[in-house]
Amino acid sequence: MLIANIAPRSMGKTTDTGWMLHALYEAEAPDGTKKYKPRGYDADHSRQLHTWATGPGEFPMPVELAATARFHREVHPPEGWISVVDCGHTENHPDITDSVLRVADLVILHLTPSTADIQRVVDPPVGVPIADMVARSAALRPDSKAPPAWALLNRVVPPRTEAGAGVKRNAKSTVDARDWLESEGWRVLDTTIRTVEDFKQSIGQPITDASSTEFGDLIRELENRGLLK
Question: Which InterPro entries match (predicted)?
């Protein structure tokens, strides 16, 4: 399986990719064995994910360089693995994203719940809306169908518990972003990623216990929705 992590610009995508890989690696089957074999591909010319993985981060899974507009021809993920691709920004390198979308089994759009970021997704200053990029990939795929695409909100204000009610409420920005994306036809994952230092400052550092964070929740939601295979 191949998951394409995409974003129009810097929106926490690489950080999310690193934590996703670790949450997949830590996931266990009922008998205690590893449930998945994750593998990363750095398809961004910045090489940030690869540098993190092969340097101080010491990722326990392979991460390969793959920033090429011929990804669909040159990269051959092995069977039985879950490959996660950190795509280059769609605004700057749409050719790379177009190539990855030709072979992706799942697309996850990473963005913050801000007006500026959502506008870059639905009405970008250059290029086409990201939903259109996903849709146009259908004509170049073997089954002539676009891959399923979901949005993941990250860097969200942590939900707060209302005094006396014991009920957690999301920040207005999170609620508004979800409503806006859904009105534009996007399916939005229930899981959100908080804006906390553990995530924001993690690039260049080892990751531990990812499965107990929102990224563990993300993997479980993808499983429950039948999106992992």
Answer: P-loop_NTPase
Here the CATH number for the domain that contains residue 161 is: 3.40.50.300
Residue 29 falls inside a structural domain: yes
In a domain, 167, yes or no: yes
pTM above 0.90, yes or no: yes
Q: Which amino acid is at 150?
A: W
Long-range contacts of 72-79 (CB under 8 A, 24+ apart): 72/99, 72/100, 72/102, 72/103, 73/99, 75/41, 77/2, 77/39, 77/41, 78/39
Q: Decide if 45 contacts 93 (C-beta within 8 A).
A: yes
Tell me the pLDDT tens digit for each residue of 130-156.
Answer: 999 999 999 999 999 999 999 999 999
Domain annotation covers residue 229: no
Determine the Cα–Cα distance for residues 155 and 12; give it in Å rounded to an integer: 8
CA 88 to chain centroid, in Å, comes to 12
- From CA 32, how far away is CA 44, in angstroms rounded? 34
